[in-house]
Amino acid sequence: MNKLKNDTFLRALLRQPTEHTPIWLMRQAGRYLPEYCETRRRAGNFMNLCKNPRLACEVTLQPLARYDLDAAILFSDILTVPDAMGLGLYFAEGEGPKFERPLREEWEIRNLSVPDPGVELRYVIDAVAEIRRALDNSVPLIGFSGSPFTLACYMIEGGASEDFRSIKSMLYDRPDLLHHVLEVNTNAVTAYLNAQIEAGAQAVMIFDTWGGALSNRAYKAFSLAYMQRIVEGLRREHGGARIPSIVFTKGGGQWLEDIAAIGCDAVGLDWTTDIGAARRRVGDKVALQGNLDPVALFAQPEKIAQEARTILDAYGPGSGHVFNLGHGISQFTPPEHVAALVNAVHEHSRKQRQI
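^ that's the sequence the OP posted. Answer follows.
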């Protein structure tokens, strides 16, 4: 396997010395880029874009052509897994993702089965392989999945939810049924991420977008415990290289120590947590990823740069930090503001290392 030209991101995840703090952005290939919107228009709709490995590769590479980013992330969606389970994913205009057949009846839950990544999710695995070839060892490729609980939220609610009434009712009334869904999801996500690693993903991330909606006890039992099982089941090495893992719970600041203890290499932070305090809390157990408020990208470029420097200074000297947003980039973000952020992170972090 040829050596990566820029392996800063992977070294930071493993808390090895780096010349600068690496940066990539959640949803970096997205609607804020006019070239992405054009490719999506050609695809016809979002799912066509996801299910076409050539077009998924095209949009994955678009932000890297614009910005000096330190990693690429597979273009896909977290809901490909429940779609592969037969729940019928579709995207209603202006309403976000929905399922034609959400899990409501006990028999539907008992019938749920783990999809074969090489069959039902072949298009994702093919996209990983194609993107990896197209990157030509320029920067690492990140694979990802939703967490078992976050996937279950959509599978049981049937789409996005304000109060998670259906899944939480099941959690309190029939925890056995929810545990069954989470068990199937855990096996599915583990197989899916390992298939991505086999196809060429050089790091993997678990997005626990809705874990923060749970109570303390419920988070540990219904989200964290299952993510720990996934981390334990992941391939740690492929092709002679270590494959780091990142776990991100939005709204999970109070559980940092618990997340850091499940065996992942890095913990993602949303913008509500002070990164300096987070570093003191987790010590040298894990790297940290984050955590600029995505809305800060609407400020003027000099203010964006100032915010970036504040986060870098709060983290402090040494490696183990991957700069990112605290959640996905807004579709309304001016593309030139992203350039200001990337440049500020690289410039200031290089200066930090010279002090």
